[in-house]
Write a structure and sequence with these properties.
52% of the residues lie in helices and 0% in strands. The protein has 4 helices and no strands. It is elongated and about 60 Å long.
Length: 91
């Protein structure tokens, strides 16, 4: 049996979080439990989600926009209002 190589050159940074509000910690703990992760694992996942967002394929983005579009009231803004906003340089 050949032993697996272990890379000991990887460095890991340790961080300590202080003064976490009880309500926020409770939500973190609840989320960790729901995802079968430790508090540390859940915190790392939350940070990765915010700081390293995944790239979304154009087809996924288009599907999401189309699903949102059907929920928008077409009479909420008139064509004249849209044209005026465009003329004023507002997106």
């Amino acid at each position: 049996m050949i032993p697996h190589a272990i890379n000991l050159d990887q460095t890991v940074t340790t961080a300590t979080f202080k003064n976490i509000p009880d309500e926020l910690y409770a939500k973190l703990k609840e989320s960790a439990s729901a995802h079968h992760r430790s508090i540390n694992g859940e915190l790392i996942n939350c940070l990765e989600t915010v700081l390293k967002p995944r790239k979304i394929k154009a087809t996924e983005r288009l599907a999401r926009l189309r699903s949102i579009r059907v929920a928008i009231d077409s009479k909420a803004v008139s064509l004249d209002e849209l044209q005026q906003a465009i003329g004023e340089g507002r997106p």
